[in-house]
Amino acid sequence: MAGSAAVAAPGPSAPRRLNVNVGVLGHIDSGKTALARALSTTGSTAAFDRAPQSRARGITLDLGFSCLRTPLPPHLGPGPDELQLTLVDCPGHASLIRTIIGGAQIIDLMMLVIDVTKGMQTQSAECLVIGQIACQKMVVVLNKIDLLPEGKRQAAIEKMTKKMQKTLENTKFQGCPIAAVAAKPGGPEAPETVNPLGVSELIEVLKSQAYLPTRDPTGPFLMAIDHCFSIKGQGTVMTGTVLSGSVSLGDNVEIPALKVTKKVKSMQMFHTPVTYAMQGDRVGVCVTQFDPKLLERGLICTPESLQTIHAAVISLKKIQYFRGALQTKAKFHITVGHETVMGRVMFFSTAPADFSEEPLENAFDFAKEYLYQEEYLSKGSKSSEENKENDQTGEGQLPRQQWALLEFEKPVTCPKLCLVIGSKLDTDIHANTCRLAFHGVLLQGMEDKNYVETFLPKLKVYKLKHKEGQVERVLDDYSVIGRSLFKKETNIQIFVGLKVKLSTGEDGVIEGGFGQSGKFKIRIPNGLKPDTKVLVTVTSKKKSKAGKGDTAKEDESSKVDSAQPVTINLLFKRYVFDTQKKMVQS
Fold first, then answer.
1. Which of 98, 267, 305, 546 is the most buried (most CB within 10 A)?
2. Helix (H, G, I), strand (E, B), or coil: what is residue 540?
């Protein structure tokens, strides 16, 4: 199924093709576009820096696509006649990382392009992070080997190869192939006739790494559009990559950003007419009566299959290279599906006793209770240190799964269960630091604009509150007067009936206020221990003595000084989204 699914349905005489999407990622000026150009035999419409500002600056601003066709390698088995590698040239400019993240979601195999004279740079590291999140296989390409003096070239390539192997040791791409090329010897100004070095060897490496990607034609159709233009007498063509499902001639497709539905009039794959396309295919879809200026890039889908959401619950993991804590209430650039918007986060986890619970994949349990966290818990984070102190398991361990509530500054249109990446894209571009902070899966979107009232109260996230006061004096064997637990202006009525515990072990219940200064009465259902009464009497004497300035006998005063006041502990939970702010005790 997976194998046949990845094969493009041909027109009447077209060969059967297996399409594999190869992402070309790397730091700016590492030569990605030149490499894609050297590799490709057919350019697609979005290919090679088509944007005027991109050509002027000599950098790729948008995802460029082109393709390379080659006979099918034997390890891919019978079936298709040829292998089509669709090259997705991702921009390397740091401020354009949003586009890369968009591109990474459609990539089967990644080429990380490294300038051999510079090695790993900030963006190469970020590309590596994105690759680990969104991609299964990688090939490293050391480019610009023509800049190395011929006599020392081989030694320099071997040195850089060793360095890269070391860098990849702790990633999922450990041991991946590393190829050395010069995509455009002599640089951008060199004549077109100059032949690239090492490119045919690289094509062999790519063929050896190609695999039958698992493609699934079922489920709703979703396609990422990266280019939109009109053809006179034909209509408007939207080109892009099918992210899920399939599409046939005559189907209705929705452009959710514009709330418009259109009928598919014709389709093409790299200049070959087709009647059907499915997940993983690069295709141009033609519709009529639609102004291409309205949609340069975005999504099209089966009508009504996408959600437009104002907030979401996600499960997430911190990216190990991100320096600094992930704090609740902080703002991040959130990439959801193909959009990047600002959003605020609130982290939460299971209670410490359940930290080792099996993670729940692709679903969220609203019936459970969750513990609010001031920040994402990771080794060395402040909250995890505090948790160690309150840890009932005594291990100071971290939860196996953590979640966040994301609240977006403007609504986002995206599929269910899509990839989410949080970054700090406002960090200085030239700072040598990874700006990608966390990645996760969107588990539940909130489509209602008034989600704070209608949806959040279902999310049972609580904070643990701890208040401490002191016993001032004993009233009788079954009741004491306490102080310092509440402020003078606190309405003690709302605390009536809550359980407290004395430091001497007795359980008590708050009965009500006592006088005007924030003092209160506690009932001790099982009675006070005799020792407690002595202790309270001694410490209250100590207070009054200190007040009167009496000089007591030596032995008595030393006994009084060592007596600790009896404390009152009040523990309760308060649910973050409970509008009534009720205090709950388990």
1. 267
2. helix
